[in-house]
Amino acid sequence: MKTLTKAEEQIMHILWDLQRAVVRDVLEQLPEPKPAYNTVSTVIRVLENKGFVSHKSYGTTNEYYTLVSKKEYTKFRFGELMQKYFNNSFPQMASFFAKENKLSIRELEEMMREIRDELKENENKS
To answer: Taking the chain, what is the end-to-end CA distance rounded to the nearest angstrom?
Structure first.
């Protein structure tokens, strides 16, 4: 999987939210100042070439939909961050975020509870 540019990621977030959309739908969701229609169309075609998006044609109109889920891409990006900045160490990453965000003991305990629940849920699926 390839890392997306800021513009590509912004459009992917819109497509994930809308699930299916034509270029004009995506353009309407973008904040001001809005890019040109052709710019949005080009970015979507790049996403299609990268394998993130596909389309169904209705005459001259293309309706786009995602091939990569938000969860899949998030997992990929976090994997990159973990490797690049934290030597694949979850404790290093958690410690960094705890310090930088000045998390309280209560917030850390809540985070641990959520992690335990997720691990238990994954064990039950296996």
So the answer is: 26
